[in-house]
Amino acid sequence: MKITAIEAIPFAIPYRKPLRFASGEVSVAEHVLVRVHTDDGLVGVAEAPPRPFTYGETQESIIAVIARIFEPAILGMSPLDREAIRARLDRTVGNPTARAAVDMAIWDVIGRSLGLPVTTLLGGFSTSMRVAHMLGFAPPAVMVEEAERMRSVYGITTFKVKVGRNPFRLDVDVCRALREALGPEVELYIDGNRGWSPSEAARALRAMADLDLTLAEELCPADDVLGRRWLVAQCSIPFVADESAVRPGEVTRELLSGSADAISIKTARTGFTDSLRVLHQCEGLGVEVVMGNQIDGQLGTMCTAVFGAAFARTSRRPGELSNFLDMSDDLLAEPLEIRDGMLAVRELPGLGLEIDPEKLERYRQDL
Ligand code: MUC
Ligand code: MG
Questions:
Q1: Alpha carbon of 79 to ligand 2 centroid (Å)
Q2: pLDDT tier at 335 (50, 70, 90 boundaries)?
Q3: Average pLDDT, the chain
Q4: Mean pLDDT, residues 271-297 taken together
Q5: CA 306, CA 344: separation in Å to the nearest integer?
Q6: Which terminus has fewer CB within 10 Å in the chain: N or C?
Q7: Protein residue with least CA distance to atom 6, ligand 1
Q8: pTM for this structure?
Q9: Per the residue annotation, which of 191, 261, 274, 296 is the catalytic one?
Q10: What angle do CA 164, 22, 283 make, to 5 degrees?
Q11: 357 preceded by cis ω (within 30°)?
Q12: pLDDT for 133
């Protein structure tokens, strides 16, 4: 089996409401569908979400790097030669979501060719993941209403609250309103997307000390090197590195320098091949992980669940798997469903997903 072509198809699907956070905002899912073709007629799929405010990628850059560099680099190779493929893709720096989508589409091909689910090939720990929902910036009453709806309709009881606004009082009010409305059983954690300085973050954490938050993610930039160590040293809950710790080397740097003590794994940026490396690194170091959300569509969300369900450590806590619910539509022939706070992986070959050709026709931007 040989790789014969890689397609990179831009598509745009509007959100019903924008997701806002300290480093940016997303109101249309302008993603890239990646399809890896083989000489025996198999097609593997994945999606790449451009996040210029996090990784510097755009839809155009993802399409260009795949067409001009990644596709020629691996044409004719066997999808099973994963480490050789990785070495070729790794000659190009940056471009994490483009590289990850190629990697995951190749895993989809491998699963399809063997007639086995990718989640089984990866680890096979379980067949579903608990779901956490990410709440974007809005006034406190609106965020409370969204959380209550997610709990009553989908059974979700873990919420990641976006913070990092200035002044920080509004974020404190939001977290307090959520705790008061949802009660003590619900899990709340926060993500600042680098919006605060270390001293603002320290004050905000003190103001929320009675709210039983479980994790604090990326409250200030990793480039505030000493300030962040100072903050993490006094933080009473694990400090999660997300966008500051993409590559395995960055994970090591953040953890060993005391600038973080937990890691967000996002398949959207490390695919399956490098997410495995990050996971094993965290396991070896005895560090907690969170399966994070790159504001993925359903295809990307399933990739997160396929990886997260495959291992004990990633299954310990809920994965961020629900923000596709805010999209007005998607590309999948059979939409994902969250029931009783869980998302099931599909016990079908590969990722277990098919693209609906009519939907792709409607939303693709290159025709
Ligand atoms: C998250 O966890 O930070 C928002 C920006 C980004 O890079 O990812 C999302 C969610
Ligand atoms: Mg984050």
A1: 31
A2: very high
A3: 98
A4: 98
A5: 9
A6: C
A7: 294
A8: 0.98
A9: 191
A10: 80
A11: no
A12: 98
Under the banding of pLDDT at 50, 70 and 90, the label for residue 66 is very high
Of the bound ligands, which one is closest to the alpha carbon of residue 295? 1
Known catalytic residue at 242: yes
User: Position 202: which residue type?
Assistant: A
Query: What is the pLDDT at residue 36?
Result: 98
- Averaged pLDDT for residues 217-234: 98
Cβ of 51 less than 6 Å from ligand 1: yes
Q: How confident is the model at residue 298 (pLDDT cuts 50, 70, 90)?
A: very high
Domains of the chain from N-terminus onward: 3-115+355-363 (3.30.390.10), 120-344 (3.20.20.120)
**Ligand nearest 26 Cα, by number?**
1
Question: Which pLDDT score, from 0 to 100, does residue 162 have?
Answer: 98
- Of 200, 217, 218, 261, which is the active-site residue? 217
Q: Is the peptide bond before 167 cis (omega within 30 degrees of 0)?
A: yes
Residue 195 CB less than 6 A away from ligand 1: no
Q: For residues 246 and 251, what is the distance between their CA atoms, to the nearest angstrom? A: 7
- The closest-lying atom of ligand 1 relative to the alpha carbon of residue 19 is 4
Length of the chain: 367
Q: Verify whether ligand 1 is closer than 6 Å to residue 97 (CB atom).
A: no
Cα(124) to centroid of ligand 2, in Å? 26
Q: Which of 218, 261, 294, 296 is the catalytic position?
A: 294
Separation of alpha carbons 162 and 192, rounded Å: 6
**Within a 10 A sphere around the Cβ of 283, how many other Cβ atoms?**
14
Mean pLDDT of 142-164: 98
Q: Is the CB of 326 under 6 A from ligand 1?
A: no
Q: Label residue 367 by pLDDT band (50, 70, 90).
A: confident
How far CA 192 is from CA of 21, 23, 31, 347, in Å, comes to: 8, 9, 24, 36
Exposure pattern of 151-184 as b/e (b: 16+ CB <10 Å)? beebebbbbbbbbbbeebeebbebbebbbeebee
Q: Which of these is catalytic: 57, 224, 266, 274? A: 266
**pLDDT given for residue 125 in this prediction:** 98
Residue whose CA lies nearest to ligand 1 atom number 4: 294
Q: Is the pLDDT of residue 120 over 90?
A: yes
Is the shortest distance between the CB of 131 and ligand 1 below 6 Å? Answer: no
